[in-house]
Amino acid sequence: MTSTDQSIPVITIDGPSGAGKGSVAQSLARELGYHLLDSGAIYRAAAVHALECEADIEDQNAVLATFESFNPRFEAGNPDDGVQVWLNDQNITGKLRNEDTASAASKIASLPAVRQALLASQRDFQRPPGLIADGRDMGTVVFPDAKLKIFLTASAQERAQRRSKQLKEQGITTTMQRLTQEIQERDTRDSTRSHSPLVAADDAITIDCSELSIEQVVKLILSELK
Ligand code: DC
Questions:
Q1: Poorest-confidence range of 42-51, 53-62, 90-99, 162-171?
Q2: Of 19, 21, 112, 198, which is most buried with the most CB atoms under 10 A?
Q3: Residue 129 CA, ligand 1 centroid: distance in Å
Q4: Where in the sequence is the domain holding 30, given as residue range(s)?
Q5: What is the CA(46)–ligand 1 centre distance, in A?
Q6: Which one-letter DSSP state was computed for residue 84?
Q7: 4 within some domain
Q8: Gap from CA of 159 to ligand 1 centroid (Å)
Q9: Cβ–Cβ under 8 Å, residues 9 and 200
Q10: How many angstroms separate the alpha carbon of residue 135 from the centre of ligand 1?
Q11: pLDDT tens-digit profile of 165-200?
Q12: Which residues are near ligand 1 (CB < 6 Å)?
């Protein structure tokens, strides 16, 4: 575990899928004028690339081999579209959120050498004036010296409902049963893997946001920061 630059503040937001980390992190970054790292998007982009290379995504060496040609670019898009993700000259933003990508991302995220290989590109996001880092192991592994660590969670049912709404807005329909099952499978894989499992850091503040709005969570975090 390496120490990161203490002079550039980092706030880590970890937690399971669908807990609202993305919206909370975006809102905090806007409020504080900080950079934003969506580490899940890095795992998702790596999964899209590995699938396009037709690698066996459960084979660590095969996935690592695809990293030789993996050069994602994250560009701030217009406020309506958000961050745009590019692989060479292909805009893959639309592919990042589909369920095939999510499932492949979860699989490659369980491979220790893959996680190790993606560490430096995540730490690269720590730039002045500060960083909001959203993920699963931001406070435990990637930024262990973060100034403030938040672990955001919500009930499985609430998270499935939120994901269903998000997908509907993107024109993707799926049943609640399938969605809940996929979320539970991904949670189990993410929290039981031996390398960087999804757990709250010892010094993290846990917030259950099942009954809280994004604005209320952001307010809570800002008051912790003070
Ligand atoms: O947050 P997300 O749903 O976009 O993440 C996609 C997958 O990547 C998910 O299965 C968990 C994994 N992930 C991870 O293992 N570590 C991170 N820091 C971020 C995401």
A1: 162-171
A2: 21
A3: 25
A4: 10-221
A5: 11
A6: E
A7: no
A8: 15
A9: no
A10: 6
A11: 888 887 888 888 888 888 888 788 878 878 878 899
A12: 17, 39-40, 43-44, 102, 105-106, 109, 135-137, 186, 190
Q: Are 83 and 75 in contact (CB under 8 A)?
A: yes
Angstrom CA distances, 126 to 3, 36, 107, 121, 123, stand at 12, 9, 26, 10, 6
Band (4; pLDDT cuts 50, 70, 90): low
User: Quick check: is 5 in a domain?
Assistant: no
Domain count for the chain = 1
Residue with CA nearest ligand 1 atom 4: 40
Q: Which of 136, 140, 193 to mutate to test the pocket of ligand 1 (most atoms within 8 A of CB)?
A: 136
Tell me, what CATH number does 17's domain have? 3.40.50.300
Check residue 171 and give left, alpha or beta (phi > 0: left; psi -120 to 50: alpha). left
pTM, two decimals, is 0.88
Q: What angle is formed at CA 90 by the lines to CA 86 and CA 91, rounded to 5 degrees?
A: 55
Nearest atom, ligand 1, residue 110 CA: 15
**CA–CA dist 20, 48 (Å, integer):** 23
Quickly count helices (H) and strands (E) in the chain. 10, 8
Does residue 2 lie within any of the structural domains? no
Q: How far is the CA of 97 from the centre of ligand 1 (A)?
A: 11
